[in-house]
Structures are given as structure tokens and as C-alpha cells.
Amino acid sequence: MKNLFAALIALLLPVLASAQFSISGKITNQAGEALPGATVTITSPATNTQADANGKYQLAGMPAGTYTLKATYIGYQVTTQTVTLTGNKVLNFALTNATFSAEEVTVTATRAGKKSPTAFTNLSKKDLEKNNFGQDLPYLLNQTPSVIINSDAGTGIGYTGIRIRGSDGTRVNVTINGIPLNDAESQGSYFVNLPDLASSVNNIQIQRGVGTSTNGAGAFGGSINIQTATRRDTGYADLNNTIGSYGTVKNTVSLGTGLMCGHFSVDGRLSRIKSDGYIDRASSSLRSFFLSGAYYDKNSTLRLNVFSGIERTYQAWNGVPDYVIGDDTRKDNRTYNELGLMPDGSFYKDQVDNYQQNHYQLLYDRKLSDKLSFSGALHYTKGYGYYEEFKNNAKVTDYGLTPVIVGDSTIVRTDLARRLWLNNDFYGITYALKYQAQSNLNFTLGGAYNRYTGAHYGNIIYTKQDAGIPPNYEYYRDNATKSDFNIFGRAEYKTGNATLFADMQYRRINYSFLGFDRNLKNVQQDAKLNFFNPKAGITYEFDEQNNIYASFAVGNHEPNRNDYTNSTPASRPKPENMKDFEAGYRTSGDVFKGGINLFYMLYKNQLILTGALNDVGAATRINVDDSYRAGIEVDGLVKITKQLNWAANATISTNKIKNLSRTLASYDDNYNPLTPVTQFFKNTDIGYSPSLIVGSEIAWAPVKNGSIAFLSKYVSRQFLDNTGNVNPTGITTSPDVANNPYAVNRLLKAYFVNDVRLKYDIHTKSIKTIGLGLLVNNVFSKKYEANGATYPEVDSGVLLNYNYYFPQATRNFLASVNLSF
């Protein structure tokens, strides 16, 4: 029997030697809380993996043998374990807090924590990677609560927009490593200027409502707090490629040294994205890079980030006229872009937007004592570029010129091409001091001083006729400056199961701009604003997994550039004020985690759209005394089985203006101005504010290393203005509406869109991971518009609504092949 047994063992040894096993487990802190994104490394053979959102990791395809595993996570001590592998093994890690939480200090100063009485969502690097096929950053946030997105080109590449709780991008505060991204004047965040930023992002927190004190523009609908690449202890090389519908191509190369000599690391990325767009002449050509170098020691981290983006997009920001979408006789009534149309019927080939933005960030974190830590940053952003456009039969007097007599003719109009330039500089300092006075009491003192200078000017580069215009003639210039100072203090005190929260911010703004004055015409003007933004709240913990919270916050928000320059000192709009009431419940378990949040946002002097647009699509706004948003947000994730998860969220809200007075321009048959027409509305809906938003993601992993997800988004109807689509009495509606419902229905119809995402990873000896991905957007080919605008006027007693829409792409795909070394 012994000889038989020995023979069997000898026969099985080759099989055992070639068997492939796995090591899996969970990484937590000493309190048992999951540490998503923690790294598990094996030095021989060299391989590593990161924990998922639940702290779980897996190393697969490993032969039998003895291995030493190292678990690391920022802010925790390195933990090492040795295991002999003869079969599948479960190995858990419980990490101990390090003496200093380097790098995290930079972002925690402006972030909400687990016990904060604030509605927020965290997205890890893995959450972002699974949806990153090259679309703009807002598309990667689409499945978070209360978010709706749109794309000018219809594909998610090029100019995109995001709204949180119905508030547009000018009211959504965006920071990168605590440094403001919002444009200081327009206050929007143009992610097109930083293409493929998501490939260099480590994590994102989205806060809804006023949230915690932050740097930059006031948060009136929400905040997006981005942290870029952080320390990775092992070297890596990634090559990511995507191809897709409408000529879409994305190429990304990422490299990193890992930790060198125990102190240094360098990470870099180079990207390019090209797409023709769904709407014709809505192409994009985008390039970017990201470079980061860091030095670490026991008590400090010093990191330098340099990143840049260059975009060239064909202008599609005016959308598609309603009569085009409403005309079913057209071969393709969704692909239309009339910008740059010349008299001969051809299109001006350079009707494009060109812009480059360079960012420099120097981030420093240091532990000053066992109780005190500091983070600070110096930053500088340089932006410059122009958009070029063709103007048909333009008046020469509009460009500051006197009509020229040539022979027997007087040149009063001519076709021309012009470039409108923006050359700006944004620089400043941010800081935060965190003091852990006691285990149950901590303070944070933070703030920033930022300064912006922007030169706006225009050149005429071509005229059809000799109108006396010298080469590259500059016909206007507007130099603006803005300084923004803020300081905030925050404290958290835990007593029993309750945690008390207080946050106070003072913000001062000085803005100088070229504005219109009825007496002096265009003169340099100044606006000085002082804001005090207090916040307070309480969180009560039933246990480690369940808590309830309530908070009250005040937010103030300054008008943007167009609000100032399109008004006189007498008619200048006032700053907005909001009182934000929030209350909710959160739970986190192994099978289900989620929460419910109630909000009531009460506005004073909210700036709302009147329907008027200027020549580049910017909206004119007025103050309304009283308006509000009230609603309920629900989100959750349930593990139906080990392989099947369902994540869903829903927002139900009512968004009202109590009293609205709107004045419309009126003209006669010869387009001579008549007495303006004033309209009055009561309890009308705020524009672009759907009453129902629902998101869903069903994810199934039927095979090892493979997954399929079905993503859904429902958005109820939205109005393009603030009238609730009510046609006023006493004014006749255009007779054309009988054949064109878009002309009277000033709304975006409800839409329900579904996507399918497939992922499969292959592990080999030479290539750590070969990742295959397929994203089919709008799989049921729904025709819908996600954004639009309306411009009303009264013509000879008849109400005319000039409506424009942004159609989104029907069924389209993006396929990716990602190689990790």
C-alpha cells in the first residue's frame, strides 16, 4: 500500500505543480472598516492588485508555492503575511493606522467623512475605470444620485454638461486636489479642456447641496472633489485603446515607477481622443498629458503635478433648431449644425474652438506633531485660445469701423471671419491645518487666496470686401481681474453616539471688468462682495453600520461674467443666497448598503434664465425673490447573489418659483421695437429641473474575470424656460405650431436610455492583464434631446419661440483593449 501511495503521489506531482490557485480576502482597518483601493503586492513573481469598493481583493492564476504578501494603504502601516499555497486560500489583512496620513490631508479638508451630516457619493479608481471608454468626465458620474448629463456633439466627447439637483455647472463647485477648476468669470467647469482626466484620477467625491466648505465658486447644487493619482508602491505600464462609432478613437499610455529608494515616485500619462460627433460638424480633436513626481519621508509628502489639455472642436454649441427636428421629411433630422454656413451653401472649414489649458500644482503635506498636520498647495493655471467663426453680411459699424466708399459703392456690410480670444492666468495658494485635540474632538482651519487675470479680445482675420480693415484688426478688448479670498473653520465633536458638526466660512471677492454704463458707455467697473457661509449638523450612530443625520447650511454665490457685462450698474443682478436643509439615514452591510436623504433648498435672489441668448449661446438671467427645491433622494446597492449586484438611485423633487415676472422684447413688421410685453406667473417650475431622475445598474459576473452590466437612466420632462410651458393670455401664438409642436412645447421630453457594458480580463505571464471592454450606448436607439434653449419674442402681437435642442446619439458603441504590465 505504501508503494502504491508513493506511486500515486509521483504521478500527481506534475499535476499539482501545474495547478493554478488563487489568494483572496478582505482588507480592513482595526475597526473592521473596508479599505477600498488598498494594494496587495507579491514581489516574486512581481504582481499586485487593488481592493474593490468593499475592501475585497483576489490574486488568481497562481501556481502552488510559498508567497509573501504585502498590503499597503495610504495612512496605514504596511502589513506583511507569508502563505504556502496548495489550494485556494483566504487571507485577510487588518491594517493599523500610521502615524501620519500623508496626501489624504490635501483633500480631506474639503471633503465629507463617514459621519458628516452631508449627502455625498464616493467613487474609487475602479469605479471610474469600468466606465472609462474615453467619454468626458460627467459621463462617468451619470449613475450617481440627482445627476443628469448632456453632450453638445451627442456622443459624450467634446463639450459636455452636468447638472446636480437641476443646478447647472456654474453652480457646481469642482476642485482638483482642493484647487478650484471652475472658471473664475463664467464659473463653469470645462472638462473638454482636460480630456481623459479620468485616467489620472484616484477617486472622486460628489457632494449634493451646499456641502462642506471648499475653495472656489460657491456650491449651489453640489460639489465634485477630484483627487488625482496618489502613491503606488510598484511600477506599472498601461496601454489603453478605444475605437467606436462616429470615428471615435482613444489612445492612452500610462507609466509609473512605483516607490524608488523608499522615497520617490514618478507617474505619467499621454492621451489623445478623436471623434466626428453624432451631430454633423461637431468633431473633436483632443490631446492631454499628466505628469506627477513625489517625494515621501516619514512625516511629509511633496508632490508636483503638471498636466495639460488641448482641444479643437467644431462649434456645436447653438444646437439644432426645432423646425429641423420637427421636420420628418428630412433624411436624418438629428444630424444638423448650421454654424458657419456661407452664402454659397458651403460651410466655413474653420468654424472651430481652439483652447489649451496648462496646470501646475505643488502639494505639500506634513505632520507637525502627533495632533497637528498641515497641507498646502501653490498652483498656477494658464489658459489661452480662441474660437473662430464666419459672419455673413456683417455690419462694419458693429466692429467699430466707418463705412468705406469704394468707387460708387459704400461698404456698410461684408462677409468676414473673426477670432474671439481668451488669454487668462489663474494662480494662488490653498492651505489646511488639522488639529486632533482629543480622540473625540478635531478642528480644521483652511482657506485660499486666488487671483485671476483674463484678457478678452477679438480679431478680424478675413473680409470678403475691402472694408478698410487692416490685417488681424482688433475690434474689442476687455481685461478683467478677480481676486477670491476665503477662510473656513470646521469642528467635529463626538459625545456618546452623536457627532456634532460646525463649519463657518468667510469669502471676499473683488471683480474688475469692462462693463456698460449709460453715461460713460464702456468703462472699467468693480464689484466687491462679502459672504458668510455657516453650516451646522448632527449625526447619530446606532452602530457601526447605521446612522441618521441632519444639517443646515447657508450658501452664497456671485453672478457670473455675463450677468455683469450684460447689465448696467442700475440693473446689475444681486448675488444668490440659499438656505439648505438636509436630513437622512445611511446603512452599510454585507448584503445591502444605501441611504435616503431629504432636502429643502430655499433660494433668495436666485438667478434664472429669461430665455434670451447672446450671439455665442450665453443666457441672460434675472433675480427672482423666492424659489425653492425640495425632494427626496434614495440610493442603494444589494448583493442578490455572489455574482449578481443591483445598484439603483432615484430623486423625486419639486422645483418652484413662487412669483415670476418676465419681460419680452416686442417688434412690428419692420422689426422696429415696440413696448415690451410683460408676463406674470405663479408657482411655476424652474427650468431644466426634472421632477424625477432614476438610475440603475445591474451587474452580473457569470464567469471568472468577466462581467456584464445593464445601465439605465430615466429623466422626466424638463422645461427650457421658467414659465412651466404656459402660453400667456393676450398674446397670439405663432400659427406654425400646428405643424411644429417644438415651437410651442418649450420643453425637453422625458427620456429613458439604456446602455450595456461588457468586461473580460485575461491574465498571462508576459502581460499582467489584458482587459477587453465593450460599451453599447443607448442600446434601444432612443431618439431624445438632453439639453436645449429657447429665445422668445413678440412679433406684431404674435409670440414666437425660437427653440434649439441638442440631440443625443442613437445606438452607438465603444470597444476597448487595455494592456497592463
UniProtKB/TrEMBL annotation:
Keywords: Cell outer membrane, Ion transport, Iron, Iron transport, Membrane, Receptor, Signal, TonB box, Transmembrane, Transmembrane beta strand, Transport
Localization of this protein: Cell outer membrane
Gene Ontology CC entries for this record: cell outer membrane
Coarse class of the protein's main subcellular location: membrane
Bilayer topology term: Multi-pass membrane protein
One Pfam family this sequence matches: TonB_dep_Rec_b-barrel
Annotated GO MF terms: siderophore uptake transmembrane transporter activity
Lineage: Bacteria, Pseudomonadati, Bacteroidota, Sphingobacteriia, Sphingobacteriales
Family: Belongs to the TonB-dependent receptor family.
PANTHER family: FERRICHROME IRON RECEPTOR-RELATED, FERRICHROME OUTER MEMBRANE TRANSPORTER_PHAGE RECEPTOR
SUPFAM superfamilies per UniProt: Carboxypeptidase regulatory domain-like (SSF49464), Porins (SSF56935)
Name under which the protein is recorded: Iron complex outermembrane receptor protein
Domain TonB-dependent receptor plug: 114-222
InterPro entries listed in its UniProt record: Beta-barrel_TonB, Beta-barrel_TonB_sf, CarboxyPept-like_regulatory, Plug_dom, Plug_dom_sf, TonB-dep_rcpt-like
Native organism: Mucilaginibacter phyllosphaerae
Limits of the TonB-dependent receptor-like beta-barrel domain: 300-779
Signal sequence segment: 1-19
